[in-house]
Amino acid sequence: MPYSKLKNLYVEKIIEDIIFTGKVLYNEGLVNSHAGNISVRFEDDIYITKTGAMLGFLKPDDIVEVPVFSTSENDKQASSELIVHRAIYKKTEAKAIIHAHPVYAVALTFLLEEKFIPIDNEGKLFVGEVPILDLEHASGSKELAEKLSDMFKKTGKNIVLIKKHGSFVIYDNLNYALKLTSDLEFCAKIFSLVENQKKILNKN
Hints:
The chain is of the alpha+beta class.
């Protein structure tokens, strides 16, 4: 089979996976209606959701192809976080990125300073210590792109929380990036419920 045909088949699978991932993120409440973004790198191209796309209801036309190492006309259609995805792909071995707004995890960033450490067994095993990055400009900015990509590169972490904003998860495949995004929110819920129970018990 010619390489061009193989590539087309692979790209079709990438688009199917992004659409599936968007549905799961929305159904699990990890993004609200028009929030969040998803991308996958294949060779020197990025397949990323469009700006303003509804992740729970994606169609193939809601995903655009842009280059990793340069800019293109399609940049105008891509998510406003493209600058961040591009920086991460340039500096790491990541092949997939999910930016979500998990409510419990984001809420914890208002109370915690430098990191979130899960207390449940699954969290300790799969999520581990999650750095919290505090920025003046936390959405689609050069500051976010530079500091977040540097943090992923230097720490080797797969998950970073942006204070008062959301989560970024990177991995070498989209399915596991989705798992980690879901795991993070589960751990944050456990942490929050336990802390609330402690307060109730201490009052009694």
